[in-house]
Amino acid sequence: MKDLLKLKSSLAEEIENILNAQIKVEAHASALYLAMSSWCDDQGFDNAAAFFARQSDEERAHMLKLFKYVGDRGGRAISPEITNVPTDFESFRGVFEQTLEQEMFVTEQFNNIADVCMKSKDYVTFNFVQWFLEEQVEEEYVARRIIELFDVIGEQGTGQWEIDKHLVKVTFDEA
Amino acid sequence: MICPLANVEKVFDTEHGVVYQCSRQNCYWLEFQGTTTAFKISDLFLFKKRIDAIDIEAMLSESSRSYDFEIVMPFRTERCYLLNVSDILNLREILAGTKFMIQLNSEVKRCLRRGCVIA
């Protein structure tokens, strides 16, 4: 009997499902950062608002990269439904702490994907997710460094204004 | 009725229905409730997902008559299935068996290919 399954797709169902789940995670992250951008703008933190708008675009680009890969391998990428996007945040510092938590969650997700790929011997997808894992080093670094600015500069007086001014200068420098 | 030009092989059957694969047209034929419907492989799996997602518990527990039947109209077919709980369970059995046999066939083919090339 002809193998119609492989003629249609090179992706195992399990891999296609976890990649679609990750597409949803990235889309949610994009929506979350857009909400943070709006909140920062509302609070008068111009640079932070621009930072989160860029982050939002970046997460969407990640989502589209996954989306294209699923399609390229013969799978069906699913445009996700995004719910539970917050509109309000506790504090300026809290926004960045939530960002770091979000990035650490994404790293954990990609680690799980790599683990599943390894177990199912899908080294093509394993190789594909390496790019994301490397990207996560930068994402976590930047979020952590910005949180440290809150301690280094302090939030009293014009502190928040200083933090907003300096957070754009945080960049990741690969060795 | 299955196209007379089709080159079909039985994939899986139960007393309630059967699925054939047509390797000429690269599609599957589902015989169920006295009807025959052709699906491409991705559509067949989507159809299975749709049937698996039906909330049977709600159908059994809700007293409203609208819960007695589920209407399913798969895309790219001219079929409209009117399913009661028993039909859904029967259809799930056919589709689960079919999916397993398709995956098993794929795995067997993979092993055979490997054997041909490496042996």
TrEMBL record, chain A:
<dbReference type="GO" id="GO:0042802">
    <property type="term" value="F:identical protein binding"/>
</dbReference>
<dbReference type="InterPro" id="IPR009040">
    <property type="entry name" value="Ferritin-like_diiron"/>
</dbReference>
<comment type="function">
    <text>May alleviate iron toxicity in the presence of oxygen.</text>
</comment>
<dbReference type="InterPro" id="IPR009078">
    <property type="entry name" value="Ferritin-like_SF"/>
</dbReference>
<keyword id="KW-0409">Iron storage</keyword>
<feature type="binding site">
    <location>
        <position position="26"/>
    </location>
    <ligand>
        <name>Fe cation</name>
    </ligand>
</feature>
<dbReference type="InterPro" id="IPR012347">
    <property type="entry name" value="Ferritin-like"/>
</dbReference>
<comment type="similarity">
    <text>Belongs to the ferritin family. Prokaryotic subfamily.</text>
</comment>
<dbReference type="GO" id="GO:0005737">
    <property type="term" value="C:cytoplasm"/>
</dbReference>
<feature type="binding site">
    <location>
        <position position="62"/>
    </location>
    <ligand>
        <name>Fe cation</name>
    </ligand>
</feature>
<feature type="binding site">
    <location>
        <position position="103"/>
    </location>
    <ligand>
        <name>Fe cation</name>
    </ligand>
</feature>
<dbReference type="GO" id="GO:0008199">
    <property type="term" value="F:ferric iron binding"/>
</dbReference>
<dbReference type="GO" id="GO:0008198">
    <property type="term" value="F:ferrous iron binding"/>
</dbReference>
<keyword id="KW-0479">Metal-binding</keyword>
<dbReference type="GO" id="GO:0006879">
    <property type="term" value="P:intracellular iron ion homeostasis"/>
</dbReference>
<dbReference type="Pfam" id="PF00210">
    <property type="entry name" value="Ferritin"/>
</dbReference>
<dbReference type="GO" id="GO:0006826">
    <property type="term" value="P:iron ion transport"/>
</dbReference>
<comment type="function">
    <text>Iron-storage protein.</text>
</comment>
<keyword id="KW-0963">Cytoplasm</keyword>
<protein>
    <recommendedName>
        <fullName>Ferritin</fullName>
        <ecNumber>1.16.3.2</ecNumber>
    </recommendedName>
</protein>
<feature type="binding site">
    <location>
        <position position="136"/>
    </location>
    <ligand>
        <name>Fe cation</name>
    </ligand>
</feature>
<keyword id="KW-0560">Oxidoreductase</keyword>
From TrEMBL, chain B:
<dbReference type="InterPro" id="IPR046508">
    <property type="entry name" value="DUF6686"/>
</dbReference>
<protein>
    <submittedName>
        <fullName>Uncharacterized protein</fullName>
    </submittedName>
</protein>
<dbReference type="Pfam" id="PF20391">
    <property type="entry name" value="DUF6686"/>
</dbReference>
